[in-house]
Amino acid sequence: MTLDSMPIGKTAKIESVGGEGALRLRLLDMGLIPGTEVTVQKTAPLGDPLEISVRGYQLTIRKDDARLLSVREENK
Q1: What is the pTM of this model?
Q2: Among 11, 33, 37, 71, which has the highest number of CB atoms less than 10 A from its own CB?
Q3: Which alpha helices (DSSP H) does the chain contain, by range?
Q4: Residues 25-40 pLDDT 10s
């Protein structure tokens, strides 16, 4: 599953970060590294961008970028 398909309020762990070059490095620099828990907080009215909670802060990313993050839903 990818982050863009996660329902609001669900928590998941990042399994892998796709993309290449500067985009991949930017995602990693924002703290989106494998093993990190992320929670989808909300989406914009038209569904793009997504607001996620990661490492204690709120981050807004485009749906295209969220599609590059492979996640595994956590059972809590």
Answers
A1: 0.83
A2: 71
A3: 21-29, 63-66
A4: 998 988 899 999 999 9
